[in-house]
Amino acid sequence: MTVAAATPTTSAAARFSPAWILERISRWPLHIAVIGLTAAWMVPTIGLLVSSFRPFSGQATSGWWTAFQNPTTFTLSNYTDVLSQSTTNLGQAFFNSFMISIPATVLPVSIGAFAAYAFAWMKFPGRNGLFLALVGLLAVPLQLTFIPVLSFYVQHLHWTTDNLESYGIPGLPWVPLWLAHAGYGLPFAIYLLANFFRALPSDLFESAEIDGAGTLTVFFRIILPLSVPALASLVIFQFLWVWNDLLVALIYVGSTASVAPLTVNLAGLTTSLGQGSNLLTSAAFFSMIVPLIVFLSLQRYFVRGILAGSVKG
Amino acid sequence: MDFSVLLQDIPTLLVVIIGVPGVLAAYIVGGEYLVRRLPDKNRPRVRPWIWVGPALILVAGYLLIPAILTAIQSVESNRVDVLDPSTWGTNFVGFRNFSRQFADFPTGGAWVAIRNNVIFWLIFYTLFTLAFGLVLAVLFDRVKYESFVKSLIFMPMAISSVALGLIWDFMYEYQPPGAAQTGTVNAVVTTLLHHDPVSWLQDQWPTDTFNILNNLALIGAATWGITGFAMVILSAALKGIPGELLEAARVDGAGELTVFRRVILPLMMPTIVVVGTTLVIFALKAFDVVYVMTSGNYGTDVLAYRMYNQLYLASNSGGASAVAIILLVAVVPVLIFNLRQFRAVEARR
Questions:
Q1: Backbone phi, psi, residue B41, to 5°
Q2: How far, in Å, CA of A138 to CA of B285, rounded?
Q3: ipTM for the whole complex
């Protein structure tokens, strides 16, 4: 007992020694800088968040920071208004964003994993040259590809939104966008996964193959389970990229309400409602819900993905 | 809003959740099944193409071939159907599409967009982001609540540039002098600096032909969103520097600033260069922020936006192709650098 009690006493004495206090005080500027910079970084988001709970009269005549003097004026009406107005189509756009993002993630990640397996563990002529070409294509501006692909879709295949919808096949109107996102996402997917697959110990497959396991078994039972961290980063990366994409969706599906994703819808609202409208604040936060949930719950994998492939353009 | 919309369209939901993965699984299982039917000798020759084939077709179809066709389109008139080789040549216009983009220096053609991309965006976006990212990484490294503050800085990375543009529209809001300011930036300017409010997105200070102010306002917004990216990578590199090295420098009497300048900075240089090249590509491809906040007005046009404009508003596919090629030329040095980096890494493997 006495020994156990004595230990905290000595450490407490050390803790409040003049040297310790001096050390603490000398670190105050650091803490002030860190907390101050972080707080400043948060201001734009907090400003919009506070604004989204203020009535139009307040938003138009005073800054968001004045709202705290009179907190009773906070209201949910911006959210209920923007979500209930059928002209904003936010609900439909929310659904569309999911229907675009899920296949546009599944396709490049799966096809990329197949290809990465071949690049990492199979021998075929032109392998190194093809891989080098993929690395070169990582940074090519997508602008370079829009005109021929669009002309192929519209003039040769007649894949306009109206035409595709008229077939009545579910999901068909998004096929052009899914395939485009798959093509654009593949170089990064292959690059990231091939590097990861290559680093796996080769004895694993060799012994499995000696035991009679086929290529499919090796791929699904050994490679994929071992690559969960890389696959998770890639899935999150691609999902957020597609969810947040404006340009590619704007080019290939445009702003038709039945197919347009949230980003296109939100950008359209800035024109139709006018910049500075109080409903935009709530619409903006609505569009941020899914990425923020994904980010906050899977941040670790997201960061890992960024560290693994910081050459994506 | 009617959230039931998420369940109303169950057929689409099924296609997306079961159909697409099902097709992919069927492809690879079916492909392997066929390969196994082949004679032993041919299997290793056919199998890789089953696995790598779909990826090669998609990459060729969506990136490589379209890029080549765009280059052809850029020297043809708008009448050409670039997918039909028999129309090539008959509408050849040489460099006319380009000369239109390069006409009337400094405010005509694509000059404003070129200037904004390769001077303002390239320099300020890259430098601001690297500087903020480095300062934040170094400061945060010294506190215990590092991961918490890091995720707060990093959060804007997760949201779309459209939402980012809206957030900053509100930051930059302008009310006439004397009226209560509703935008945060103008509130700071008027109350703390006692300056008249500034219309950040429209003010073409200092001159209409070299309007740095509103471009910096756009770049500032974009920088805010991307700094977390630079910070995370730089912070990982910082953690890779052995502690003994820094300790040794400090024991030798070097101050914190000297340690940073003489030890940390040189050791982090390779990472800074990699992050910098990525940021240069981002800067050259800037689109969303400009689209949402100014639509390229008031001298804030950028190449990616001009290309979109030429294609959709002007229906000028020749001009749009020329702008895309200009964009490519701007990116090529970075591309070559990336390939060299890759080869160097491969050689060390």
A1: -65, -35
A2: 13
A3: 0.88
